[in-house]
Design brief:
about 210 residues, globular, 6 helices, alpha/beta, eight-stranded mixed β-sheet
Length: about 210
């Protein structure tokens, strides 16, 4: 993997941090991905993307929201998350490459809500929380359907926040990690190792990014 470097960025929501993992071949785009409301950039899917994509000309920017940098345990309101993401955008765009906005769970929602206004080239939504567990009536599909740019959802087959078959039809693509939960963990009984599950995920993302041109 490329040697990462970190960059602190001051936003109206506080100090945020980007961990840059540079492309190892001619860079063609930046994939900026943020974490969810209960974890950081050490999530298995974010680590897998940072390891796999640089060889395909993709610079990966792992984004830590200000609340996480400050060591807080609970994420702030969505509006504050959007503020932090907006404040980071100039740094993400600074390399002069198209920027694909992405994230997992709450980070995916932020990317969807702000993509059009920020000029994102596309959106990668990992474990999009379509609804709170057990409450399908509280759908967040409007955020996903309103990105205005090419969008890929990668969802675990058993995600309690929305299984693949629960998603509405719309102008987005959907890839599935079989039997995966919200963190893309797969129970051993299904015979899919973590490495294999991450290969499914990174393969889907790599193919989609290549199709963007």
């Amino acid at each position: 993997m490329s040697r990462p470097r970190t960059q602190n960025v001051t936003t109206e929501a506080g100090e945020a941090r980007i961990t840059w993992v540079p492309a190892t071949t001619a860079p063609r785009l930046v994939l900026a991905v943020s974490h969810g409301a209960g974890g950081g950039i050490e999530a298995r899917d974010l680590k897998a993307l940072a390891a796999a994509l640089p060889a395909h000309g993709v610079t990966v920017a792992l984004v830590e929201q200000p609340w996480r940098v400050a060591g807080k345990k609970v994420a702030p309101a969505p509006k504050t998350l959007d503020t932090g993401w907006r404040g980071l955008w100039p740094a993400l765009a600074a390399p002069g490459l198209p920027v694909v906005a992405g994230g997992r769970s709450a980070g995916a929602r932020v990317a969807c809500r702000t993509a059009a206004e920020l000029g994102a080239a596309a959106v990668l939504a990992l474990s999009f929380p379509l609804h709170p567990p057990g409450k399908p009536e509280k759908s967040r599909a409007d955020e996903l359907l309103g990105t205005g740019v090419p969008t890929l959802v990668v969802q675990g087959g058993n995600d309690p926040f929305g299984r693949p078959e629960e998603f509405p039809s719309g102008a987005f693509e959907l890839a599935q990690v079989p039997y995966g939960d919200h963190g893309f963990a797969v129970p051993k009984k299904f015979g899919l190792t973590e490495a294999q599950a991450m290969e499914v995920l990174t393969g889907a993302v790599t193919g989609w990014l290549t199709s963007l041109g």
